[in-house]
Amino acid sequence: MHSRAFLASLCVAFTLAASLSTNDFGNFEPPDIVERDIAIIGGGSAGTYSSISLKDKGKSIIVIEKKNRIGGHTETYIDPATGTPIDMGVVIFHNLTIVRDYFARFDVPLITSGSDVDPNAVSVTGTYDLRTSKEVNITSPSQTNVGAAFAKYAEFLAKYPRLNDGMFLPDPVPEDLLMPFGDFAKKYGIEDAVATMFNYNPGLGDILTVPMIENQRVWGQSLVQQLAGGFLTTKHHNNSELYSKAQAELLAAESLLLQSHVICSERSDGGVKLIVQTPAGRKLIKAKKLLITIPPRLDFLAPFNLSAHERSIFGKLIDAGYYTSILNNTGLPDDLSITNYRSDTAYNLPQLPGVYGIGSTPVPGLKLAYYGTPRSNSTYPLSDQQVKSEIVNAIKTLQKANPETFSAEEPQFVEYSSHTPFYLQARPGDTKAGFYREMYALQGERNTFWTGATWRAQDSSDIWRYTEEEVLPGLVKEL
Ligand SMILES: Cc1cc2nc3c(=O)[nH]c(=O)nc-3n(C[C@H](O)[C@H](O)[C@H](O)COP(=O)(O)OP(=O)(O)OC[C@H]3O[C@@H](n4cnc5c(N)ncnc54)[C@H](O)[C@@H]3O)c2cc1C
User: Is 452 touching ligand 1 by the criterion CB < 6 Å?
Assistant: First the structure.
């Protein structure tokens, strides 16, 4: 256990290195001291949900978000000419009470995804191999066979009901949960579900080599159940509406610091102190509890003076790269979406890194392009410039190879977003050795609680459920 003086000196050293000025927890005047029950780091899906839920439970909170808006991976591009929104990040949610109640609280109407699409509108999906730019003929399994494969998969999941709530793995961890997902699919005869799983769970990396348990995080019981009834999306096709409204409420309640980040901190059994850089200068935040919702990578967590134990746990995480963009001048017909397939791979899956697909949008002339990398030990395996040039290259090669279908134009980025580091996950050997058990055991240590995608899944609905059911009860009880 570190002494407070040691922690404070670490803080000064870190601050000196980071910004060339000294700081001390005692050097703040009352107007720059903020006292709250809970300080929340990150205002994305998990941080925003947590803040609203805790506020509604009568707790005082402060959210520290590094960007000038909350919402994290939920990003909506508004076409300036028409005002039409395009959700280029999070699109769909599970049809669950917790989801419906959350949106209803902000008066954001929901519909079943796809239910308002005009059935007469012509929309085509082309299957191309984006290495060769040639169209490939894909024989997809019938809906009946896909349904049967998911039924078998659901039967397997039913053996482990706690996995529906988080990475609560049996001890010892069964080999079936650790094996590469491709081997699992063969063993359990669920091959006909693989392409659907891949398409709904991009950003995971190579689904066939990823351990079964990591694909299962998103493809858990809850998501499988949604396949039958349909997913929810916002009626206005603007998922950021939820976050704009939450942001206004949090700002009005002096519960949100935008464009702010923690410089250094002291986390002890007595509570938490944070020195936060904000646009209005440095603030000292004193809180009873800290809730960290940002990806728990060692570099991101540097200001939180991690213990050797915390460092040894989070240092094991690896991740993948995931990027989204909107382009114009693609030369592709407005009604055409392109899925990247290969004729020579299992399940015709594309090789990563590569373009997942190029989708239509409601705005004529604009296309959405998605790009991903496999998992890697080094985050940011590709620069944004590399990703952008590969996307443009794929489109231009399509134009050249198919002059009768696509016109030769110079694609331009209207919007680009890197969601890297994405899908933080453990290697199977570490999972077998009890990684997730150890990670979950950190909840509450040094008055610090944790939530977000790494703790649950890259799935907002499941993050909200995990946060509400598994994290906040323990946190609130300790206040
Ligand atoms: C393109 C895309 C599409 C997706 N589609 C869906 C979908 O349709 N349905 C679905 O359920 N899920 C979807 N997901 C997954 C979903 O977005 C994530 O699971 C969810 O956003 C994760 O929430 P989070 O709070 O853990 O992280 P985030 O939402 O990324 O939030 C983290 C927040 O912390 C902030 N932050 C980071 N570092 C710091 C720091 N040092 N200090 C302060 N703030 C910091 C970030 O700016 C961000 O606001 C999608 C993800 C992507 C990328």
Answer: yes
Residue 380 pLDDT > 70? no
The reported pLDDT for the residue numbered 285 is 98
Neighbours of 76 (CB within 10 A): 20
Report domain extents, the chain.
4-72+239-315+428-478, 80-88+112-137+319-423, 149-229
CA of 276 to the centre of ligand 1 (A): 21
Q: Which two tokens stand for residue 300?
A: 């991101």
Q: What's the gap in Å between 44 CA and the centre of ligand 1?
A: 5
- Ligand 1 atom nearest to 71, measured from its CA: 49
Task: Give the single-character DSSP code of 469.
Answer: I
Ligand 1 close to Cβ of residue 89 (< 6 A): yes
Helices (H) and strands (E) in the chain, counts: 16, 20
Count of C-beta atoms within a 10 Å radius of residue 329 = 15
| CB neighbourhood size of 381 (10 A) | 16
pLDDT for 23 equals 53
The tens digit of pLDDT for each residue in 419-448 reads 999 999 999 999 999 999 999 999 999 999
Ligand 1 center to residue 71 CA distance, Å?
Answer: 7
Q: Under CATH, which architecture does the 4-72+239-315+428-478 domain have?
A: 3-Layer(bba) Sandwich (3.50)
Neighbouring residues of 295: CB distance < 8 A, sequence distance ≥ 6? 319, 421, 424, 452, 453, 454
Residue located via tokens 């694909």: 215
Work out the widest C-alpha separation in the chain, in whole angstroms.
72
SS (HEC) of 230-242: CCEEECCCCCHHH
Q: Would you call 10 exposed, middle or buried from its count of C-beta atoms within 10 A (0-12, 13-18, 19+)?
A: middle
Q: Pairing mode, if any, of strands 110-112 and 61-64? A: unpaired
Query: Is residue 395 within 8 Å of residue 405, measured between CB atoms?
Result: no
Structure tokens at 360: 């239509």
CA–centroid distance for 343 within its chain = 30
Nearest of 254, 260, 233 to residue 69 by alpha carbon: 260
**Beta strands of 366-445 (E only): which ranges?**
367-372, 412-418, 422-425
